[in-house]
Amino acid sequence: MREDGKKSVTKLKFKRLMRKKWLYPALYLAVAALVLVGVFWYQQSSNDVADQLNEGNQAEDDVFVNEDGEEAVPVTGQDENLEMPVTSDLEAAIVTKYFDYEAADDEQESALVLYNNKYYQSKGIDVATSEGEAFDVTAALSGTVTEVKEDPLYGNVVELTHDNDVTTVYSSLGEVAIQSGDEVKQGDVLGQSGQNSFGQESGVHVHFEVRKDGEPVNPETFFGQAVSTIEAAEATSEEGSEGSEESEEAAEDESILEDEPTPEDEPTESDIEPAPEQDDAPEEDGEGTESDDAGEGEDTEEPSLEDESSSSTQS
Question: Which residue from 62, 88, 222, 304 has the highest number of Cβ atoms inside 10 Å of its Cβ?
């Protein structure tokens, strides 16, 4: 009987509880709180996963630091696009082109450099401004400074090495802002443009060369393209140079057969020579050497006394 009484009391209390007005709102609030907690937990777990993914991607782009704590440029894994050796906001133009044997005649004429009364084939391009003022010369690619020197013909010269056996050379610099062994990024200032003896007609400029395996290639062909594309075009340039040698030989043979002289203001194939290497200045044309003057003096002898007496007897 007592157990039945306890059950009836419990049922009565439950009925009274269910009749309370605050019960159902409290239940709704409790359920809503559980739902919100679940949503927050799901969002937090999603953010944690996203952070882990970002950390993994950032680890691939980490900056390398050398022993001195300085930022180092990673050499491997780069495939940058070749850029002009000037800042992007500078209004500069190419005043001397690269001599391409397959180019048109007018382009080949604009790629000739007159020095010491001879025409030389340009192995790079000359970049200058219309005002003729000095400007910052920047690195066309990221790389290592392997040489900084002063050349008697080309002025101050800076050489950078890059991936895929590619080398860029910046000459005719007035001032140099880096030194050999420095690691530079693309766009870093290497120095100021200036003048040199070999390219006097270009005024204040920078002479820019791109070399693949030590052989010069046309920079204009690869501006805006990846470094890896320079290697693909190397075989074509070699074939063009071989064909140009044959054309030069044929032109020389034809010039021997022709009797009519060519105009002095137009260079012939025989007058054109490859540009001199650095540290190899061509000899300047002189009016004569001391040995020549001595030879001329030996050819002209003063008459002796016997010759004078014989001439007087004949008279």
Answer: 222
Whole-angstrom Cα distance, residue 99 to residue 169? 16
Q: What are phi and psi of 273, to 5 degrees?
A: -130, 155
Examine the domain organization and report whether 172 and 124 are in the same domain.
Answer: yes
Q: Is the Cβ–Cβ distance between 139 and 85 less than 8 Å?
A: yes
Q: What is the domain range of residue 142?
A: 92-246
Cβ–Cβ under 8 Å, residues 191 and 173: yes
* Spatial CA neighbour of 145 closest among 196, 86, 185: 185
Query: pTM higher than 0.90 for the full model?
Result: no
Comparing C-alpha atoms, which of 127, 145, 116, 82 is closest to residue 275?
Answer: 116
What's the domain count of the chain? 2
**CB atoms < 10 A from the CB of 110, how many?**
16
In-domain check, residue 311:
no
98 and 242 assigned to the same domain:
yes
Query: In this structure, is residue 147 part of a structural domain?
Result: yes
Cα 164 to Cα 227: distance, rounded to the nearest angstrom: 7
55 and 127 in a common domain:
no
Token pair of 5 as six digits: 């009484």
Contact 113, 274 (CB under 8 A): no
* pLDDT grade for 206, boundaries at 50, 70 and 90: very high
On average, the pLDDT of the chain sits at 75
| Residue at a domain's end among 187, 217, 246 | 246
Mean pLDDT of 172-179: 95
DSSP H helical ranges for the chain: 2-18, 23-60, 105-109, 219-222, 228-232, 234-257, 290-299, 305-314
Tell me the mean pLDDT in the region 91-100.
94
First to last CA, the chain: 185
pLDDT number for residue 36? 86
For 198, the token pair is 């070999």
Beta carbons of 96 and 122 less than 8 angstroms apart = yes
Q: Which CATH number does the domain housing residue 218 bear?
A: 2.70.70.10
